[in-house]
């Protein structure tokens, strides 16, 4: 079997690697041809999203994976998981006992790729800009605990927070907190198109066809000073229309590495050792999939309708028929490997039951069958999404309580339509911004949430989320986190379905593959190197 597995046990909600595969990060050689990485992520501009790569707008795993290579942040998630470490910063720490004052000192001699110095004022400008623009993507909500930002000289930045936030160091490791040059980014306007400039490990250039990036080229930035060691001089990220086209490219040697999103069939084939030249690496991931609801929409406005769906959906059947061993049923927004996880939906609904679902609808006076449409994206989460929604549709309709149809849309129209509230029920995925339970709850439930959902619960927003963030020891936050998950299971503004593993396939002369993705599905292209073919 031409496969290698990373085993990453959970420790206090964070993951620490104990086994590396396909060579360590330092085993690759520099120089030579560019390492070519394939992806099915699509990078497009539209009238609704003309600035997909602006740090103040970007908020999906694909665009963030471009920004993490190019736009430096004060803090960074380390290769081996755990607490964030300084990157653009020399040091950062809370300077009070209440986790409300956070101070950072920049590395000496820090420069943008252009050669301009990076100053504390640039950090302040960058983060205040994201908060001021407050883009429709909802990404600025990650920074909503910031009250004011103070600078002292050119190297010191002090964040004064509105409330205690023990997760704040993680938030400073996300691209929305990326440091940009005021010369390149206007204060009150997003930067349209595909240009990206920063002080990260690489510079970036996009080959554009129509309104989409076909090839993204990352070239080692000689001015970079930070936490990572760059093991190559150049990486090309090529976008493919689908997993089959990407798979054919790696078989022919046109690409060296295959990332998201491979199809279940491809993974099974590689797992069985179908190729002597291509190795499959599987590793723990924190990806989740869920149904989201526009709780103002007439078809699902009644909580009883959403509860009945939660009572009917058979997660085990979805996993077995569509994803096999590549996924596991999920009964909370918080994955099972993260501290604070609670099986809240199973605790409330137990095993699927049509009789219990019928009782919920009858008690609420809801006429059946309830007619609704389930919307999904055809090209963002992989080709298996359609089959998943076909299984969901059959489960609901076989109950006799629903008359459900399904409708697929390309991501470039799906995401804006979802944000505008045009879908009553729709399928989404989540790749965490950082590996903490807070990031599986607050983005969906807090004010100005990622989904643009009208659902609001004052207890969650004003009591439970702030209480959980006061706990620097995340084990102590479990009580508040569990209470949030129990409310979600009762109100069902979202319906969690499954959590998945993640996979990378690479030709046998590529090293550092085990660290090409971290648990948050962050591409770490700097880990890749070129060795000797076996």
Short description, anyone?
This is Peptide-binding protein. With about 525 residues, the protein is of the alpha+beta class. The protein has helices at about 60-70, 120-135, 170, 245-250, 265-270, 305-310, 315-325, 345-350, 355-365, 385-400, 410-420, 440-445, 460-470, 480-490, and strands at about 5, 10, 15, 35-40, 75, 85, 90-95, 100-105, 145-150, 155-160, 200-210, 210-220, 235-240, 255-260, 280-295, 325-330, 370-375, 400-410, 425-430, 495-505, 510, 530.
Describe this structure in words.
- This protein has 534 residues and is of the alpha+beta class.
- The chain is globular and about 70 Å long.
- It has helices spanning 61-70, 120-133, 168-171, 243-252, 264-271, 303-312, 315-323, 344-349, 354-363, 384-398, 411-419, 442-445, 458-469, 478-491, and strands at 3-5, 10-11, 14-15, 35-39, 75-76, 85-86, 89-94, 101-106, 146-152, 156-161, 202-209, 212-220, 234-239, 257-258, 278-293, 327-329, 370-377, 402-409, 425-430, 494-507, 510-511, 529-530.
- Mean pLDDT is 91; it is low at 1-31.
Computed CA radius of gyration, to the nearest angstrom: 23 Å
Structural class: alpha+beta
Sheet with most strands:
12 strands, mixed
- What is the number of beta strands? 22
Would you tell me the overall average pLDDT?
91
Distance between the termini: 15 Å
Shape: globular
Strand content: 15-25%
Number of contiguous helices:
14
Helix content: 25-40%
Poorly predicted segments: 1-31
Protein name: Peptide-binding protein
Domain Solute-binding protein family: 84-449
Signal peptide: 1-20
Organism: Streptomyces incarnatus
